[in-house]
Structures are given as structure tokens and as C-alpha cells.
Amino acid sequence: MRIEKCYFCSGPVYPGHGQMFVRNDCKTFRFCRSKCIKNFKKKRNPRKTRWTKAFRKASGKELTVDNSLEFEKRRNIPVKYNRDLWEKTVEAMKRVEEIKQKRQARFIMNRLKKGKQLEKEEAIVEVKKNIHLIKAPHAGKAKKLEDKMVQKLQEDVDMGDEDI
């Protein structure tokens, strides 16, 4: 029993589920649900359909080049059964999955950092552009007027001291 991949959305197709379409040249296409079959029959491109894995990879939203993805490739080489080999293989699969999850999380965080940086720059530009809405026109003048008044009073006091 093997878990196949949907031709359109790259989702898993479990044994006994989904549909298979066989073309005249004997090429088989497996689909996980009717949504994928309908889009395939309408000749839609999975790379242009926003909800597919192909779109996410093509637009740079998912990790595409990574060594851990190499382990998922299908191998058609028969191997003689060996219990120790199977135990090691299962442990290695768990470890590879763990590594892959960490790398994907790191990739997503790096992708989001760029967006946050762009948002911050746009916010700064917006504030500089509309500073008159935030800062009142006479906001700093009250302090200046107060300083001038204190200075004049100081001068008057100094002049009064000179007279005496």
C-alpha cells in the first residue's frame, strides 16, 4: 500500500480514496477530490491556481530547494526485508521529518521578517508624508514663547539691577 500524490494539488491520496484518470497514452493521473479533477479537466495550470502546492512553491511561499526534500522521492529498487534496516529507516524518517519541520519554520519566519520590514518602511514614509496630521502647527511654539518671555523678564531684571 502506497500513499500517492494528487497530480493537481500535490495532496496525499490514500489507498481506496480519490480517482484515477488514465489518458490515451496510458499516463495515469491521481486526484484526491473532485475539485482537483474538475480543475484538471478545465485545463487549469496548477502553478496559477492559488490553493495548490505548485503555486506556493512557484511564488516562493514554500521551501523548494532543500536536502531533506530529497528523501521523499520515490525509489523503485526492491530491497530484501531486514528488521534492523526497517527500524533504522523508520527512525531516520522521523528525524528527517523533524529537521524538515524546523527548516520550514525558519524559512517562513525569514519570509515574514521581510514583510514586517516593508511594513515598517511604509509606515515611516506615511508618517513623514502626513506629519501635519499628527503634529499640531503650534505645538512647539508654546515652549518657544515661554522661553522668550523668561528671557525678556531676565533682561528686564538685569536692566533694573544696572540702574541701582
Brief descriptors of the model:
single chain; 164 residues; mainly alpha; two-stranded antiparallel sheet; 4 strands; 54% helix; elongated
Number of helices: 5
The separation of the N and C termini measures 111 Å
Q: Main beta sheet, described?
A: 2 strands, antiparallel
Task: Give the helix level as a range of percent.
Answer: 40-55%
| Percent of sequence in beta strands | 5-15%
Label the overall shape.
elongated
Rg calculated over all Cα atoms: 34 Å
Mean pLDDT: 87
How many runs of DSSP E, i.e. beta strands? 4
Sheet with the most strands: spatial strand order? 1-2
Helix and strand pattern: EEEEHHHHH
Which spans have pLDDT < 50 for at least 5 consecutive residues?
A: none
User: Which structural class fits the helix and strand makeup?
Assistant: mainly alpha
Give a brief rundown of this model.
The protein is mostly helical and 164 residues long.
Q: Would you mind describing this structure in some detail?
A:
It contains 5 helices and 4 strands. It is mainly α. The strands form 2 sheets. Strands 1-2 form a two-stranded antiparallel ribbon. A two-stranded antiparallel sheet has the order 3-4. A hairpin with a 6-residue loop joins strand 1 and strand 2. The longest helix is centred in the middle third of the chain and has 47 residues, at 83-129.
SSE topology sketch:
Blueprint: E1 4-5, E2 12-13, E3 19-22, E4 28-31, H1 34-41, H2 53-58, H3 83-129, H4 131-134, H5 141-163
Antiparallel strand pairs: 1-2, 3-4
